[in-house]
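[Q] Does anyone have a clean structure-token version of this?
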Amino acid sequence: MGALLALASAVCYGVVDFAGGLLSRRTHYAVVSFLGQVGGLLLALVVAAVVPADAVRSADVLWGALSGVGSGAAMLFLNRGLSRGAMSVVVPVSAVTGVVLSVLCGVWFLGDRPSVPAWLGICVTVPALWCVSRGGGRGTDTGRAAADGLPASLGVAVQYIGLAQAGAGSGMWPVAAGRVAAVVLLLPSAWRWLSGVRQPAGPLARPRGLCVRPKGLCVRAMAVGAGAALALALYLAAAHRQMLALAVVLASLYPAIPTVLGLTLLNEKVNRRQTAGLLAAAGAVVLLTLG
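[A] Here you go.
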């Protein structure tokens, strides 16, 4: 059950990244990130109220808040990279580095002991994620995109590690606490753009305010954030049922989803490297579930 929940989290995150990446190219990334966290907070509060919680400790709330700081930072840098059209660089850097940091932390500090098949799956996952995400697109600023991917990966690691420390009896309240922390973290950067104090230069420049059809933007960005909150809720449930290293790796297979969506919805062509990555990712799932 834990593996299925982690895979469901990966599917949700993949859809969120696909939709958020397209949205970040139409308006400022800070606004998309902030509104996404607001939408995530609304959904998280509803889910937390519905899911039973035996005992919500202050430590659980603090771990959830720390996870939210990681989530907010990760989404801000990820969306900034996506707004530059550098998905082929930002996504693999953030995903692969985030997986490595989370797994090493789980093994060294939390006592995780993956089996031999699980270790093989972990080793296969890292190159698989890189191959899947490297679409070979042109016209991207590789250096600046990599600079966005590295802090995003740190945020991903903090998000996964922090949330996994919350006790099972806390229900989904750590996820809600994380969304509050992310909203507070992202509010200043979003407010500067909304108030017109700092306008982006170049192709991202917009008139004062949101953009064309601000209501539509708000709804879409909040829906994307709600999907991310759902992904975190699924990941938290998975982390309570299996070791952190396996939950993180399975949940981090999300880069395969934008590739599949691009093939089916945007009629994109898959190259040989991506085909090899998709096949390797499928093999990694089998190995990780055996572990």
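[Q] Thanks! Anything notable?
[A] The two ends are 13 Å apart (CA to CA).
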